[in-house]
Amino acid sequence: MLLLCFTACNTDLTEIEERLDQLEQESEDLKKEGEELKQEGEDLKKEGEQLEKDIEDKNKELDDFLQQKNEPQLISFEFLASDNPMQLVENTACEIVGDNVVECWIANITSDKLLIPRFEFKGESLTIDGKKAESGVTIFDFKKPVTLTITNAQQTKNYTVYVHSYTGLPVLWIETTNREDISVDNKYYNAAFKLVEDVKTRAPGDIIEASVKIKNVGEIKWYVSDVWPSQQIGKNSYAITFTKNISLLDEPQNNDWELFTNADDNTMLRNQTAFYMGKISNLSFTPRFHYVEMMLNGRYYGTYMLGDRLENNTYRINVGLNGYILKIDATTTGSHFSTKKLEQPVSIMAPSTLTGDNNYKYIADYLDATESALFGSNFTDVNEGWQKYLDMDSFVDWYLINEIAKNENGAFQADCYMHLKRGEKLKMGPLWKFEYAFANGWNSEPSGFVIKNTNWFKRLFEDPAFVEKVKERFAYFYAHKNDIINEINANGQYLKYSVRENDNKWGVFADYKSSNLDTWIIYQNEVSSMKRWLESRFEWLNGALP
Length: 546
Description:
Number of strands: 25
Radius of gyration: 38 Å
Low-confidence stretches: 199-204
Mean pLDDT: 91
Oligomer: single chain
Largest sheet: 7 strands, mixed, barrel
Shape: flat
Distance between the termini: 163 Å
Helix content: 25-40%
């Protein structure tokens, strides 16, 4: 019995131990299941939070879409020849630039810009300068930029509409990458270049397209007006560089070109008139420029001159492999030095030099020797005086063109260039920048010398040989006076329609508008005044120089 009881108890203990092990395992399994459920709960919570965020983002996206969908918007704007039979020869589709500017280019010149537009828009109403507009019906005056306003119950959106006429000039289109403003000084911007030429320059329809780099030249100007709600890039000068040599407007091939603004010359004729005088002179090179209409990043930027940059080149300033291009200017560039007699410092534009290197010493020593000879006791000696160093023909013609124009900068103050080919004599030129000439400077009287009063030319006029050459060459220019006047007339007529567009853009003649005169009449008065002054200047010099 005892044995049986012991055996039974031992069996019960084994079963109890097995049951305990089983319960412990079940507890571990339940614990593991609990942890898994807890992790699943946390995962579900994160999924829930992400779902809430996704729903929030989608709701915001939907709100933005609905807002954008309901926002007033101009879809299209155009002028049809059928709506404007006395004004247009063909339909004109306009470009919506960004979200607040409309640029329109009419394919012909119009006597005025009273036009009927057609348009599509999203919104409840559309007005132009506050007047309700009906597409294809209402006539508006687009001579000046107008404000187009679209409204709905919640919002108002404004566009500025510019309507330009093709002017007969070549049209230059510059598009920087992403239409980025050229706003950093001396920085090159990548751009697309397209020049649409005109029958007056080559064959109709000629188009040149290329990738270029463009940078500003000189001070970057900004412009603010009542028309533009914010500051805009002004009418600045630019340098354009191609990846290879190319011919523009039938001029010799090169990869570097320049855009002049003529911004300080209401006639836009002074530079071109001086360049014409250089063309008929004895100067070895005079820059060649052509008028163009400039479109920058989809906007009209006015009338420019496109032409040669000043550089060492066979077809430009040819000074060979080891020659020099020098600039006399109050503002210095790169390596520069001053002489004892020149009014402003001399900058070495080419070649690239460091102060004190061999090239620097050579040209500095050359000008020092030149002044020693020019202001020495035997300066009139043909072999040992100034003629040993200076080229008489270039100095005489450069002097006369600047003196006839009464160019203030030409008094060795700014933009005066000289060049030297080793083994030859120092030459004056080329001509550059005549905006403050021809009665457009502080000294606008037709009488009086300007260039002759500088140290170098005052001394040169003490040599009878130089004086005789001046008389001879002045007689030549005087004999070509009518040719110069005719050049002014021809260019002024060529710009007849361009001056209107340039004035609409920049308000060139804003101070005259109180007279209610047409822009063309105002412009003609400016040109006539310039020609009368030039006639008087020639006559005064004809009496004074002999």
